[in-house]
Structures are given as structure tokens and as C-alpha cells.
Specification:
mainly beta, Thrombin, subunit H, Pdz3 Domain, 3 domains, 8-stranded antiparallel β-sheet
């Protein structure tokens, strides 16, 4: 997956609209399912979309370049992307976290040519969402629609400022829903083939009536140059609006937890378990006294549905739990020894304790660790990283799933209990990590 700011390629892909219109020309206008502009005699989505286009803005992030500076040095542009106004009365703009990351000042270029300064309300790395605010009159805003109403095959329009161009509209279809496994913590992406490129980051994904259904955030590219291969991802409004509301109210996002360490079911693990499917989240461990334990979940259970939504992998569960306010009752369907069972649990506020020790694993600084298993194919002792929460301390220090921690603060680590003792003894730690053939150091610092 490539964040949009890293891409190259063309962003002017309106040919699909022409193909659709051309195929429909044989139909009479009154009977056509496509919107028809009788005055001009053409099929067009302009009427719905034109109401939203003035709300799409360009966002420029200003910061200090590397190297010596003086106190009088002014911030310079370090990145740019797009954004969309969702609340005109209060000047609220949504964009991507990676667009504003490391910025000191923010500038918004509106569709009508005005250039205004913006204030950062807050950002959330785990969902790649940020909220800016501007003070300006005569603003437009988009109408927002519930992304749970979307269907694969719906038309989708991406709007933004790609590759240094002015506002650009591209069109495609929704290629898939509920996409996860891209590396972030809270994942439930909309996949589309609408053309997006560098500069589209943070711009809106609209339906055929011009309503907001998501925020464009990344693409999947088989080209080392980051070219557009027609696979783009957007954060759906179901997650987007929860994050925005929390950022506006508190400046940060408070997520729930259920106290279960989860892994993703894949083909290898499905064969080991004698299963005939590869979709689900495996319960790796359950923390003592947690909602998961009280709900009766056990190590080895496979969660297949949550809140009546299918579970593709561990990210699907986190996408639901991560936007559930504390106290929310969540229903689960899971398999144990081949038999289906149901349970429910209350989401709790995510613990602020940096180190939590379970029976078979450790949760610390946003990472999950367990002992090495024979099936891992690792001969060296240590504590294996099985998951890293996006936006956590561990993620910010580039700790990765698959890393093997062999030492903490200079002392050898043979398993997760030793690592737990080392992390509990000090506020933070320096970890020696084996990553393939490379040995790296990771510094985990306690939160301020």
C-alpha cells in the first residue's frame, strides 16, 4: 500500500464517464437510468456533483526543512494534499493525517481562489484522519451519507488537487467494501478504481449525487514508482465521522478495548486448524479481568462476525471496537472446536497502563508479544511481535509485526514474561530486535 503523497502518474481519468454515456445514447432520455441534461442533450452527473465541488480545498502543510535554521526562518511548504469542508458554519475541514504530519502551519486554497490559514484541531494516525479549521465566510459544505448503505458497483467520484493540477474530478465504481489488512489499526476501507494520485490525499470520495462517502487515503500499486493501478482506498464515513466528532470534542480519539489479542486467519493457519475457510480473527490471548474474558472468549476461538458484520481478519474487529464508545454492547459470533457460538461484551476504555500481561502474551506500548512457536520457523529465543496498533508508541518507533525481541535494556529476553518484567521495571526501554538478517534498536518511551 502506498500513501497518496508518494505517487506519480496521470490524474485525468474521465474516460469512464464518456464510455457510460456513449453506451446509453441508444436509450431515450425519459427512460434512461442515467441523469440527463435535456437542455444540452447529454448525460451528466454535474447537477449533483457541482453542489459539492466548492467544498473541496487544497491543503498545504508548512514546516522547517532539515538543516541549520535561525529563529527568523519562516516555515516553507513540505507537503500538500486535499481536504473537504464538512461544516461550513464552523469552517471544519477533514483531510489525512499524513498530509498535515510534522506541520507547523497550514494553508487552505479554496475553489473560489481565496487563500486562508488553518488551525489544526487534531489528528488520528490510526485512521489517517485530521481535522482543520478555518475562519472564512461564504463557505460550502458536502452532504454526508452513511457508508454502510454502499454497495459494490455503485458509482464513485474522487475529487482533489493531484500532481500540482487544479481541482480534478475522476470517476469509477466501488470495487469492494470492508477492505483491511493494509497495516493500519482501524481498517474498514472502501476500495474504488476512481483515479487518485499524489495530491488527492484527504480529498473526498463522493457518490453519484455528490454526497460524501469517504476520504481518499491510499492506493495499492504494483509499480515501484507508485503509479495508479486502479486500486484506491478511502476511509468510510462510518469511521470518519466518529473520529471527527472525537477530535472536535477532545482533540484526540479515545478508543475502546475488549482485552483480546487477535491475529488474522490465513491459509496456513486454516490448514493447521482443519478449517475450510480463511476469513476470521483468531483469539491469541485474553487478558485477565477483561471484557473478552467475561464474555467467555478463549485462546484459539475464531471470530467470524461482529455486530452482524462479517470478519475478514483482525482489522475487521478493531474497526468495530475502535469506534465504539465505552459501554457499547457488541455481539460476536465465533467458532470453537468447529462449533459456532455467540456472545456479547461491553467495550471498555482502552487502558492507559503501558504493560499488560496475559496468560500467553503481552500487550505493551501498542504492540502484542508472545513466545516463539515451532510453526514460526524461528530458531532463536525471544519475544515475537504479532501485532502493532497504528498510531501507538510502538508503531511510531517502527516496531513491526514479525520482529523478534532478543534483549531489553541490554538484558537477554527468552520469552514474553521476561520482556514484561523488563518493560515494567522502567518507564520505557531500549529493545534489541532481530528483523530478518538485520539487528535494530527500538526505543520505547513512556507517554508524557
Amino acid at each position: 500500500m502506498t500513501r497518496l503523497r508518494l505517487l506519480t502518474g496521470s490524474a485525468l481519468a474521465l474516460t469512464l464517464l464518456g464510455a457510460v454515456a456513449g453506451a446509453a445514447q441508444a436509450q431515450s432520455a425519459p427512460d434512461s437510468p442515467l441523469p440527463y441534461d435535456a437542455r444540452r442533450g447529454v448525460f451528466s452527473f454535474a447537477t449533483g456533483l457541482e453542489r459539492s465541488l466548492p467544498a473541496v480545498v487544497q491543503v498545504t502543510t508548512l514546516g522547517m526543512s532539515a538543516g541549520p535554521t535561525t529563529g527568523e526562518t519562516e516555515p516553507t511548504p513540505v507537503s500538500s494534499g486535499s481536504g473537504v469542508i464538512i461544516d461550513a458554519a464552523n469552517g471544519i475541514i477533514v483531510t489525512n493525517h499524513h498530509v498535515i504530519e510534522d506541520g507547523q502551519k497550514f494553508r487552505v486554497d479554496m475553489a473560489d481562489g481565496r487563500l486562508v490559514d488553518a488551525t489544526l484541531i487534531g489528528s488520528d494516525k490510526a485512521t489517517d484522519i485530521a481535522v482543520l479549521q478555518i475562519n472564512a465566510s461564504g463557505l460550502s459544505q458536502v452532504e454526508t451519507v452513511d457508508s454502510d448503505t454502499l454497495r459494490t458497483g455503485d458509482l464513485a467520484f474522487a475529487v482533489g488537487y493531484p500532481l500540482g493540477l487544479d481541482q480534478t474530478l475522476t470517476m469509477g465504481v466501488i470495487s469492494g467494501l470492508g477492505r483491511s489488512g493494509m497495516g493500519d489499526a482501524v481498517e474498514d476501507y472502501i476500495q474504488t478504481d476512481a483515479a487518485v494520485n499524489s495530491g488527492n490525499s484527504g480529498g473526498p470520495l463522493l457518490d453519484s449525487r455528490g454526497r460524501l462517502i469517504g476520504i481518499n487515503t491510499s492506493i495499492l500499486s504494483g509499480d515501484f514508482g507508485g503509479g495508479n493501478d486502479g486500486i484506491a482506498f478511502a476511509v468510510p464515513t462510518r469511521i470518519l465521522m466518529f473520529v471527527v466528532e472525537q477530535l472536535r470534542a477532545n482533540g484526540e480519539v479515545t478508543r475502546g478495548r475488549i482485552g483480546a489479542t487477535l491475529g488474522s486467519l490465513n491459509a496456513e493457519r486454516a490448514v493447521e486448524a482443519g478449517l475450510g475457510f480463511v476469513r476470521g480473527a483468531i483469539v491469541e490471548d485474553v487478558l485477565p479481568g477483561s471484557p473478552a474474558e467475561r464474555a467467555g472468549l478463549q485462546r484459539g476461538d475464531i471470530i467470524t462476525r461482529i455486530q452482524n458484520r462479517p470478519v475478514a481478519n483482525a482489522g475487521s474487529v478493531q474497526a468495530t471496537v475502535g469506534i465504539a464508545p465505552p459501554g457499547t454492547r457488541i455481539s460476536l459470533v465465533y467458532l470453537r472446536d468447529g462449533r459456532e457460538a455467540t456472545t456479547s461484551l461491553n467495550v471498555e476504555v482502552q487502558s492507559t497502563v503501558p504493560v499488560q500481561l496475559g496468560a500467553t502474551s503481552l500487550q505493551a506500548y501498542g504492540a502484542n508479544f508472545r513466545d516463539v512457536k515451532p510453526s514460526d520457523g524461528i530458531s532463536a529465543p525471544g519475544a515475537l511481535v504479532v501485532a502493532v496498533e497504528g498510531g501507538s508508541t510502538a508503531a511510531q518507533q517502527d516496531l513491526r509485526a514479525g520482529d523478534l525481541v532478543t534483549a531489553a535494556n541490554g538484558l537477554s529476553v527468552s520469552g514474553f514474561p521476561e520482556l514484561a518484567r523488563a518493560l515494567s521495571a522502567t518507564a520505557g526501554a531500549t529493545l534489541t530486535v532481530q528483523r530478518g538478517d538485520e539487528s535494530v534498536e527500538i526505543v520505547l518511551a513512556a507517554a508524557d
